[in-house]
Amino acid sequence: MLDMKYDGADIRSKRRPKSWIDRVWSFFASVKVGLWLIGLIIVGSAIGTIFPQEMYIPQQLPPSQYYAQEYGTPGTIYYSLGFHNLYTSWWYITLIVMLTLSLIVASIDRLVPLYKALKHQPVRRTERFMKGQRLIGQGPGTEAQIDELESALKKKRYRVTRDGDALLAEKHRFGRWGPYVNHLGLVIFFIGAMLRVFPAFHTDTLEWVREGDTVSLEATDGEYYLRNDQFILEMYDPENNEEDAKFAAAIEKAGAVPKNYETELTLFKKVGTNEDGSPQLEQVTSGSTKVNHPFTFDKYEVYQEQYSSRPEFLAMSFTIADQESGDTYGPFTVDLENPETTYDLDGVEVTLKDLYPDFQVKDGQPDTKSPRALNPAFFFNVTSPEGETESNLIGIRLNVADEDNRYKVQFAGTEMASTSGLRVKSDSTYPILIIGGTIFMIGIIMGMYWPHRRVWVRKGEGTDVLVSGFTNKNPSSLRREVSPLLEKTGLPIWEDQAKFESKPDDDTQHERGES
Amino acid sequence: MTKDTNKGDRMNQAVAHKKKRSFWRLMVMTIVLFAGAVVVMQLIEQAGNDGRVEAGDKAPNFKLVTLDGTTLHERANYQGEGMLLNFWGTFCTPCKKEMPIVQENYAALQDMGVDFWAVNVGETPLRVDNFLNGLGVKLDYPILMDTKSEVEKAYGIYNLPVTFVIDKEGNIIEKYEGELTKEKLMELAEKSL
Fold first, then answer.
1. Per-domain residue ranges for chain A?
2. A197 and chain B: CB distance < 8 Å anywhere?
3. Model confidence pLDDT, tens digit, residues A261-272
4. Which residue in A195, A248, A397, A408 could disulfide with A321, CB within 3.0 to 4.6 Å?
5. B117-142 burial by CB neighbour count: b if 16+ within 10 A, else e?
């Protein structure tokens, strides 16, 4: 049989390569190379799922230390080869670029000769050609019968061309372009994926914002600022909420179950710079973001992603009780970020001597573990109107003071702030990816559902008529379609040459899948 | 026309055809590989730009006031030769240990034309003041208050203490994470020149 893959035409890379250009071209035109590239990409992607990607690891440690510490030597190797940022590692992108080039080159290499061969195909083929086809029949027949077949084929929506006694009927030629349309879709998809590297097309950053704070958004290159107005964490409450009561049993088992994470936000746009270098902000809008319901502005989306489980203290209020007279002074409030050092309460003077935002005792001395106000403790001096000074160290579940102190410092209230982790994203490549994906699917459908079918008929030696048929998919259905017409017109019935002594109607095994 | 010239014509045509094809092949491959190279370059550039200032970067500018609130220091207005820019916190033990060492050698650094700026990360002046009073050594070098942690964020600080070696042009020569010893301090100062 003839090799009909590209209609018998030589694929370009198979011609003897002469220059280095041809050699490189042939390399990328090779299907084997393409399959290797796909294989490598699959293996790389699979390895990339062994440990978490960088964006999913905790932020406390730099990634270079995290992977080594958490996963040992394999983690170090994983990190140094860039698997922690797989989709933006240089070698992964290089593989994708090479696959893209391979798709383009292989497509041109096959499409051009195939197109030319199909465009200029002769109606009258040689006997050798016809006998090389899979479906072939030979027997007595007349030109009148061929004419009759012509009109029968036309009724089956074949495009029929004649050259004297020779006939060519063809249908669904465009199905042959399916793989190339498919490749085009893939190439567009890859281009879209590669554009994600550029911040103009794709940004993705996590911003930690404490309630009340305004931060510049790195993803917008400092153009926009967000203020966290409030962070809301709701738990399922089967006791007080009828709706939630039906989950009571499950909640009993699991403990407290969060129902909603939400951050109320105000968006600002930077319109200029103040003299002291601080940004001049203009309020744009406000809204909220909760899980699966991002806050959107411009081309950006803000997702509620994380929150800090320990809220920070913003301010604490105290009162001073005079244990001799029973009078109470205050309350007064200490701003933890920018504390006043003296508070005058009707003659009683309170001096803040020290403030430990994250209290601990180290080497017998009060100290702080971090600059974050997670567990604040205060060192106060209280001076009576008479000028006597007493000292107090007061914190959460901590009150160190002299037994004989006249004044007692008491908590009167706190102001706390949660910190919300917001993911700010923009992605302008979605339309490109969708278009690429759609074209890819169209290509597959074209190739799958429109098999290219051709029928050739011509007079042979003497009174003989040759009938042959070609299809790139499912030859038995071509046979089923055309054999009755041959029978009706009395022309020789064709046989499937590729069908050896196999079971009848077992076509799929001999299908030519390629085109 | 004779058969020979005919053949010659066809040869010429074939050669011209081939030249044209080679040209297009080269174009297609060049365009795709060039586009790929641009993407990879962008990646490499971004890999070094993860929000953490490293050796080879320009030192981000900042304006901070000293602990006593009297002097404003702006990084870009620095007139000296080299600079050691240190970040520290009162909660960090190695920071506490290195401070007297820096103080001992501060005069020598200044003679070299190298200044030492110590930026406190996001603490209150009250706490820092108490801490320095408890240190037992009076520090002559500027303690800058980054109360809003903005400079800390701009430099992408993870571990304390960290010292950036900055040259006269404002380029980061080295980022040193860890406690400073006398030898290390002088070595870094040399590098900043």
1. 1-120, 202-307, 312-419
2. yes
3. 889 999 999 888
4. A408
5. bbbbbbbbbbbbbbbbeeeeeebebb
